[in-house]
Design a protein that fits this description.
binds N-[(benzyloxy)carbonyl]glycyl-L-proline, 39 strands, about 700 residues, five-stranded antiparallel beta sheet, 10 helices, alpha+beta
Length: about 700
């Protein structure tokens, strides 16, 4: 295999930090300055060795053509009703951004309402949020550039299709909620943040404030209605369905929130809002579902790690008066719950990583029915409390989205197929998927989905792509992916998803088992998934690729540090890789709720023990690191690219020059691109193509077109 001449990268051995008496070097600290000459030079030199390697894949053009062809199928959202019209997001197949259509009748001819593809030539400006007034006459929409989390909010009349002059800037990590006067709204922003706010900056965004905006006025006239002493608290606000209350669920990290409420009925908004504090400690999650007057219904894990539905009467809100409506299920996890058809609650429960959809009576929590679904995930929902129609999307490994409609005016109540995605060149009957359970290091049973072409020979010779995430209460359910189909179809590959701890698959206990000092469980679970696939002869180490993004990038990087010889290839996307400094940039401080923080002596100990940047070590004799590709982008302000810059520099320095290291250690740095949200189709296809090429080249995979 080709050995690499990696770029000479400055290593500043004078930079030593002191963490609670322990000296820790940080030789690539200078890479934390995104727009310095030397960082820009670093980026250029790294891309200059990565591109030729990827382009040397002889099948690149064919892979790109096959992937583009398979990708080119119509993608649609469920229809959403606002006022007397329906709206639907559609992508004809290869459009860079989905287009928002409006329909006067549900099955009538739609027309373009808002086409984000007109916002830029290269498709890098995305529509990331929409929020309609109750009467449906105005929509607020959020626009993001180059994949940044920063959004600009604009307003469009659904009557004329023309924008209002209002623009709200410096909005991030926000939810826009309309008052029921259809002309004023609440949103959160960082108006005091200095310097660049285009997503290429790394500054920490703190002191988010809640503002009140009246349509037709300037943002400079907006009123600060709520702010917090603690700079790390974000607002998270919703106006109740009845319009009478503002429900605030302030959040500090990515877990647990407070619960405040403000009575809007007889409140003239001229300044800070008088809020009633219902929950004043960060101990549980609360999510608003509905209310009947002062009786509010929430989904919460308060006293229920698998979540349940409770009622709190705001007129009598002390905890002993809280009432359970839908009790916690002993095994299944309540993922979300919404009001529908006035007196029903529709729920999505996760049962062994498969979604189920049910209806409960709002008044007494009795279960009314469960919809019959295949193995898969609910991938979208549309319907409001006062509606008698609801829609939901369903998807699985071998099923691109199917949309179902439920009409509550017809009996018996059932889900009817309303739209089915048809792929011209894809025959799902050629493939199969199944779920296995394997033992992790400590004996915990871990679920894993395995998907492959039928007729697979279990001789250990199949290439395998193993995916994981493992954090933040996120459940990785079955979803459809064109690039994974290409991998299975054209490379005879096996695709596997390990539902490792830290996720939400089995509720709060599963999440807690992968947090703080338990984080090593996550890496062990993933390592054991790889061992299972090898022991059962699905694959072998030199045919095995592990892939993960963001927190999943941390997973991949920690695993190649801990067991480099177990994997043949590693794809680490937008990874969190410097665990001692992650909290200093953009929204990183919010992740302390999963990781802890190096400012704390005990938490420093376990963070330092697995932090990818700080644990790159020479493998055992004759062993080497897998072929490793880090991927990041210059406008990723969720996980700033400096993580990947520093880690690849450390890998190339410590490992890249070892005699036994024949596998490449590379990084792909994209421009006008971010963490993933809003990425244009052309960039997504290019990135997926290049990852498949990296795997093919690194593992010398057979490709049959
Ligand atoms: O930071 C997160 N979420 C956690 C997150 O994005 N993480 C957590 C670790 C790295 C990265 C990831 O895994 O995607 O969300 C911030 C946010 C965005 C939009 C609206 C409200 C709040």
């Amino acid at each position: 295999k080709m050995t690499f001449r990696y770029p000479d990268v400055k290593r500043d051995n004078t930079l030593i930090d002191n963490y609670h008496g322990i000296a820790v070097a940080d030789p690539y600290r200078w890479l934390e300055t995104p727009d310095s000459e030397e960082t820009i030079d670093f980026i250029t030199k790294q891309n200059a060795i990565t591109s030729p390697f990827i382009n040397s894949c002889q099948y690149k053009a064919s892979i790109n053509r096959q992937l583009t062809k398979l990708w080119n199928y119509p993608k649609v959202s469920p229809p959403y009703r606002h006022g007397d019209k329906f709206y639907q997001f559609k992508n004809s197949g290869l459009q860079n951004q989905s287009v928002m259509y409006v329909f006067d009748e549900l099955n009538g001819e739609g027309r373009v309402f808002l086409d984000p593809n007109t916002f830029s030539e290269d498709g890098t400006v995305a529509l990331t949020h929409t929020s309609f007034t109750l009467d449906g006459k105005t929509v607020a929409y959020g626009v993001s550039e180059s994949g940044s989390d920063w959004i600009e909010i604009r307003f469009r009349s659904t009557v004329t299709g023309v924008d209002y002059p209002d623009i709200l800037r410096k909005v991030k990590y926000s939810f826009l909620s309309w008052a029921h006067d259809h002309s004023s709204c609440f949103y959160a922003a960082y108006l005091d943040q200095e310097g660049r706010t285009d997503g290429s900056e790394t500054d920490s965004s703190t002191n988010q404030k809640l503002y009140y905006h009246r349509l037709g006025t300037l943002q400079s006239e907006d009123i600060v209605v709520v702010e917090f002493e603690d700079p790390e608290i974000r607002s998270q606000t919703v106006v109740s369905d009845c319009g009478g209350y503002l429900v605030l669920t302030p959040v500090k990290g990515c877990k647990n929130n407070l619960l405040y409420v403000c009575n809007l009925k007889d409140t003239a908004i001229t300044g800070k809002l008088p809020v009633t504090r219902i929950v004043t400690e960060f101990k549980s999650d609360f999510e608003y579902i509905a209310n009947n007057g002062s009786k509010f219904i929430f989904m919460t894990n308060h006293g229920a790690p698998n979540y349940h539905i409770i009622e709190i009467d705001f007129e009598n809100h002390s905890e002993e008066n809280w009432r359970v409506i839908v009790p916690e299920h002993p095994k299944d996890v309540l993922d979300w719950a919404k009001p529908i058809n006035t007196n029903f609650i529709v729920t999505c429960y996760i049962r062994d990583v498969k979604d189920t959809l049910s209806l409960y009576a709002m008044n007494d929590g009795s279960k009314f029915m469960e919809f019959k679904l295949d193995v898969g995930s609910i991938s979208g929902f549309s319907g409001k409390r006062e509606h008698t129609l609801m829609f939901f999307g369903f998807t699985s490994f071998l099923t691109p989205t199917v949309i179902y409609i439920v009409d509550f005016t017809k009996f018996p109540i059932k889900a009817v197929k309303w739209y089915e995605t048809v792929l011209p060149d894809f025959d799902p009957s050629k493939f199969e998927s199944h779920q296995v359970f394997y033992n992790s290091l400590d004996g915990t049973r871990i679920p894993m989905f395995i998907v492959n072409k039928k007729g697979l020979k279990l001789d250990g010779n199949s290439p395998c792509l193993l995916y994981g995430y493992g954090g933040f209460n996120v459940t990785v359910g079955p979803t459809f992916s064109a690039s994974r189909i290409i991998f299975m179809d054209k490379f005879d590959g096996i695709f596997a998803v390990a539902n490792i701890r830290g996720g939400g698959e089995y509720g709060e206990k599963w999440h807690n088992a992968g947090r703080f000092e338990n984080k090593q469980n996550v890496f062990d679970d993933f390592n054991r998934a790889a061992c299972y696939l090898i022991e059962k002869k699905y694959t072998s180490s030199n045919k095995l690729t592990i892939q993960g993004g963001s927190n999943g990038g941390l997973l991949v990087a920690a695993c190649i540090n801990q067991s480099p010889e177990l994997y043949g290839c590693a794809l680490c996307l937008v990874g969190v890789l410097d665990m001692l400094r992650y909290h200093k940039f953009t929204i990183g401080y919010a992740w302390k709720s999963d990781y802890g923080c190096s400012d704390d002596p005990e938490q420093f100990q376990y963070l330092h023990a697995y932090s990818p940047l700080h644990n790159v070590r020479k493998p055992i004799e004759n062993a080497q690191y897998p072929a490793t590709l880090l991927l990041t982008a210059d406008h990723d302000d969720r996980v700033v690219p400096l993580h990947s810059y520093k880690f690849i520099a450390e890998l190339q320095y410590k490992i890249g020059r070892l005699y036994d290291q024949k596998n490449p250690l590379l990084i792909r740095i994209d421009t006008k691109s971010g963490h993933g949200v809003g990425k244009p189709t052309c960039k997504v296809i290019e990135e997926q193509t290049e990852m498949l090429c990296f795997m093919q080249k690194s593992l010398n995979l057979t490709y049959t077109n």
